């Protein structure tokens, strides 16, 4: 029935594309009129359109003319004319949707259309890419087109100064990676002066490879952290006991959930080896956490798959792109556990200073759009999390790539032998092959086997990413064999060399299914671009992680029924369907992980928005007195709210209230207590003290307020983030008490946040009411007095040293003189006379001892 309805009325996607036909006709009608215009007409007209937008003209009404101008600019600058399907893609992006376009359809050129249109607002347009290489490449390439139209282009990559970043963000169009945009936002909210801010408000962003950034990387929040003061010795100490713990005896392992747990026997062994009475005692919670993380490091996270060791450091490998992620660290002590496992220096565990998820960062944009070749499988998540609709754009030329069914083997050795044989056959024929792997480990294993078979090839993985552009450029040449991790699946077009089309085009050979169908589709999408011939096939085994964890039992029994021989593959649609179902289960599991992360971060996001909004207004406001008075009223209301509920307060309660008032406002300096003063009297006293500060330093008063407001806000927010981390670490245990951990986190997080806000306000007044303004002249006078006192002390010390040296030098002579009779012409020294050495003592008690 659903198929019949689609045939009659068309799908929702088809109906939307149909609505764009009139716009497409208008753009095409304008093309001829622009062909005769001189080059200088275009920047002048763009400037006029900017003025129209500033005066209230809608972007939608200017879309046909702007798109027609960009198309003409592309023809003049690159000799590349936007196809009609690319114009459709541009319309979809402008409307804040996801444009799903097949590989090779020119997504980079498509983006120029809505980018220029939205740049007319003068509020900035961000084009987000997956890595620095693509950001620089696209920015340099497209800057020529934007420059032709009179627009400026900036690029944000790793290693720029704040001045360079600010200049790039102030350009009409800014290219950069998702990480750089996100971290700049967090860093801006740690700055102290508004002149230091680099980002403008978030206006419009186009996310290239949107599924990679908003889906795959959404499981990893952006975190800026600083080293905590905790010792790192415990990580190495715990690591030493891990080899003695046996699987299924001392601990259990769940590879699907990537979790470990200690058995009763394992708990007892750990207690014995660590000399602990009770591992689950509150004071031993750190040991328990470290043991579990060390077990994960040894039994779940694999070297050259999840991370590599490079230059004495553990470097994370991105599971989706295969790229190294220097500077990024696993959280909760896992990275330190890996460092202890690998025998490299264990760095101090970090404390969170600022964090945000990609979901919440990108939802800040007024309008968000995205491009990818593979979004349809995640359309539900895009709709639920981001409110983004996926529109599939038809290809400019028909897709002719042949996608063969999977070849499935019983064991990994059988599979890899078959892969090498397939590569050898294709190489002999001259057809180029791109071999896709999901880990560095597998790419190097196949490379070793090809070397033994004397088959020349290139390897592209995180260890050799410097040669990426050259390797990718050559991958479509006759006879070339390229082994790549998922790095080659993003933002790279492989152009076929001479004579390759006749051989069948580029062949994609997948060595393993990824957890996500999209990653497999991206690999397939490297072949068959723009109507080129191509083919693809995946080689699998029942020992692959995906098959072993999620689908091998059913498939294994099916293969046994079919009576398979060793080395013989099965090519069966039922098996391929079972594999796809296994992938769907993993995708559903990962979606739940991302959704849970977002649910927890939504609590933090509400708090983050309050703090960052308060911080931004504190930086920007010229007059901070109203804010300070508001804080004062809040504290007094809080203190006296409790006090006024007491009907008959006793002396002890009054003493407590007085102590709190004095601690917070230093009130005893200006008021006589007891009794407890009226709230209004306290308020006036504090304001009088602040007015005194203002009169002492009127030109600096606002800066003084700003300094203490921001200083306390940052300090209390950092402590709050640490408290929220601790709360989240243990909140899952509430589920055992039949309570919803998310609701508990929300309730207790709100309570912690309220306490933090009150503590921040109190600390501000503790500082302000104890502050003493010292003028430069007073400071100089104090410094002069201190210097004089220092010189006097130094002089006294020198005199004492001089007398001591004199006494030591004279002592032998004086001792000798005591042995000889006194000469008649020398005056005799009496026993009670002052000692001639200058000590001030009597002669008999100094040099004349015994005289």
What does this structure look like?
This protein is α/β, with parallel strands linked by helices and 851 residues long. It folds into four domains: 10-219 and 361-391, Rossmann fold, CATH 3.40.50.300; 229-348, Alpha-Beta Complex (Pre-protein croslinking domain of SecA), CATH 3.90.1440; 402-591, P-loop containing nucleotide triphosphate hydrolases (Rossmann fold, 3-Layer(aba) Sandwich); 621-768, Helical scaffold and wing domains of SecA. Helix content is 53%, strand content 11%. The chain has 30 helices and 21 strands. Strands 3-4-2-5-13-1-14 form a seven-stranded parallel sheet. Strands 15, 16, 17, 18, 19, 20 and 21 form a seven-stranded parallel sheet that branches. Strands 9-10-11 form a three-stranded antiparallel sheet. The protein is globular. The model is unreliable at 820-827 (pLDDT under 50). It is a peripheral membrane protein. Residues 802-815 have a biased composition (Polar residues). ATP binds at residues 86, 104-108, 493. InterPro entries: Helicase_ATP-bd, Helicase_C-like, P-loop_NTPase, SEC_C_motif, SecA, SecA_CS, SecA_DEAD, SecA_motor_DEAD.
Topology overview:
Layout: H1 2-9, H2 12-19, H3 21-35, H4 41-54, H5 59-78, H6 84-94, E1 98-100, H7 107-119, E2 125-129, H8 132-148, E3 153-156, H9 162-169, E4 173-177, H10 178-188, E5 204-208, H11 210-214, E6 222-227, H12 233-239, E7 251-254, E8 259-262, H13 264-274, H14 285-299, E9 307-310, E10 313-317, E11 324-325, H15 334-342, E12 350-356, H16 358-362, E13 367-372, H17 379-386, E14 390-392, E15 402-403, E16 407-409, H18 412-429, E17 433-436, H19 440-452, E18 458-460, H20 468-474, E19 481-484, E20 506-510, H21 517-524, E21 534-541, H22 545-550, H23 552-561, H24 573-620, H25 625-644, H26 651-665, H27 679-696, H28 701-731, H29 741-768, H30 776-819
Parallel strand pairs: 1-13, 1-14, 2-4, 2-5, 3-4, 5-13, 15-21, 16-21, 17-19, 17-20, 18-19, 20-21
Antiparallel strand pairs: 6-12, 7-8, 9-10, 10-11
Helix pairs in contact: 3-5, 4-5, 5-7, 6-7, 7-8, 12-14, 14-15, 24-28, 24-29, 25-27, 25-29, 28-29
């Amino acid at each position: 029935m659903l198929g019949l309805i689609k045939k009659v009325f068309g799908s929702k996607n088809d109906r939307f594309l149909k609505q764009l036909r009139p716009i497409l006709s208008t753009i095409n009608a304008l093309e001829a009129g622009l062909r005769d215009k001189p080059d200088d007409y275009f920047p002048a007209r763009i400037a006029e359109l900017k003025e129209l937008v500033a005066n209230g003209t809608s972007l939608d009404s200017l879309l046909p003319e702007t798109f027609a101008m960009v198309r003409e600019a592309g023809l003049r600058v690159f000799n590349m004319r936007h196809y009609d399907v690319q114009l459709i893609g541009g319309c979809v992006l402008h409307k804040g949707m996801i444009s799903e376009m097949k590989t090779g359809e020119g997504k980079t050129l498509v983006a120029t259309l809505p980018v220029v249109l939205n740049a007319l607002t003068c509020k900035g347009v961000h084009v987000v890419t997956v890595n620095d290489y693509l950001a620089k490449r696209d920015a340099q390439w497209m800057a020529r087109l934007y420059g032709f139209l009179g627009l400026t282009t900036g690029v944000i990559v790793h290693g720029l100064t704040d001045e360079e970043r600010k200049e790039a963000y102030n350009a009409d169009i800014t290219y950069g990676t998702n990480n750089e945009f996100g971290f700049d936002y967090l860093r801006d909210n740690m700055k102290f002066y508004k002149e230091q801010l680099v980002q403008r408000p978030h206006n419009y962003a186009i996310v290239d490879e949107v599924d990679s950034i908003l889906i795959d990387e959404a499981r990893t929040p952006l975190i800026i952290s600083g080293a905590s003061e905790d010792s790192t010795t415990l990580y190495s100490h715990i690591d030493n006991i891990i080899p003695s713990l046996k699987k299924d005896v001392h601990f259990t392992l769940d590879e699907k959930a990537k979790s470990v747990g200690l058995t009763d026997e394992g708990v007892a062994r750990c207690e014995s080896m660590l000399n602990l009475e009770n591992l689950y005692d509150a004071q031993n919670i750190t040991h328990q956490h470290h043991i579990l993380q060390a077990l994960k490091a040894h039994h779940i996270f694999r070297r050259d798959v999840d991370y590599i060791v490079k230059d004495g450091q553990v470097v994370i490998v991105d599971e989706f792109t295969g790229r190294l992620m220097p500077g990024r660290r696993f959280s909760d002590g896992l990275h330190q556990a890996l460092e202890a496992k690998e025998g490299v220096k264990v760095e101090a565990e970090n404390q969170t200073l600022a964090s945000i998820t990609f979901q919440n960062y990108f939802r800040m944009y007024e309008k968000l759009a995205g491009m990818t070749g593979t979004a349809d499988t995640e359309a539900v998540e895009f709709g639920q999390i981001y409110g983004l609709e996926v529109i599939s754009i038809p290809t400019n030329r028909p897709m002719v790539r042949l996608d063969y069914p999977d070849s499935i083997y019983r064991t990994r050795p059988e599979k890899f032998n078959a892969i090498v044989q397939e590569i050898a056959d294709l190489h002999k024929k001259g057809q180029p092959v791109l071999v896709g792997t999901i880990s560095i480990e597998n790419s190097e294993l196949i490379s070793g086997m090809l070397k033994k078979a004397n088959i020349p090839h290139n390897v592209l993985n995180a260890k050799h990413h410097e040669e990426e552009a050259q390797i990718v450029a050559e991958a479509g040449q006759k006879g070339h064999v390229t082994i790549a991790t998922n790095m080659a699946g993003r933002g790279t077009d492989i152009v076929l060399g001479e004579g390759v089309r006749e051989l069948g085009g580029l062949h994609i050979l997948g060595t393993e299914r990824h957890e996500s169908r999209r990653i497999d589709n991206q690999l397939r999408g490297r072949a068959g671009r723009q109507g080129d011939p191509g083919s693809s096939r995946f080689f699998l085994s029942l020992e692959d992680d995906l098959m072993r964890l999620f689908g091998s039992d059913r498939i294994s029994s099916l293969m046994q029924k079919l009576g398979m021989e060793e080395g013989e593959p099965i090519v069966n649609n039922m098996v391929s369907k079972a594999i796809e179902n296994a992938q769907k289960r993993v995708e559903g599991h990962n979606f739940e992980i991302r959704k849970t992360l977002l649910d927890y971060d939504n609590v933090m996001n509400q708090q983050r928005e309050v703090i960052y909004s308060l911080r931004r207004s504190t930086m920007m406001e010229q007059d901070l007195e109203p804010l300070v008075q508001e804080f004062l009223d809040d504290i007094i209301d809080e203190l006296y709210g409790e006090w006024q509920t007491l009907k008959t307060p006793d002396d002890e309660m009054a003493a407590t209230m007085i102590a709190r008032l004095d601690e917070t406002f230093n009130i005893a300096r200006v008021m006589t207590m007891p009794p407890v003063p009226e709230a209004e009297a306290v308020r006036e006293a504090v304001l009088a003290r602040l007015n005194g500060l203002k009169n002492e330093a009127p030109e600096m008063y606002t800066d003084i307020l700003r300094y203490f407001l921001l200083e306390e806000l940052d300090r209390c927010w950092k402590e709050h983030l640490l408290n929220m981390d601790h709360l989240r670490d243990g909140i899952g245990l509430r589920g055992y008490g039949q309570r919803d951990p998310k609701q508990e986190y929300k309730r207790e997080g709100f309570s912690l946040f309220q306490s933090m806000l009150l503590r921040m306000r109190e600390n501000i007044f503790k500082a302000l009411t104890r502050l003493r303004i010292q003028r430069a002249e007073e400071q100089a006078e104090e410094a002069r007095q201190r210097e004089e006192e220092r010189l006097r002390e130094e002089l006294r010390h020198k005199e004492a040293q001089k007398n001591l040296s004199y006494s030591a030098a004279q002592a032998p002579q004086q001792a000798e003189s005591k042995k000889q009779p006194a000469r008649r012409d020398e005056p005799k020294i009496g026993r009670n006379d002052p000692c001639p050495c200058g000590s001030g003592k009597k002669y008999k008690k100094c040099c004349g001892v015994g005289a």
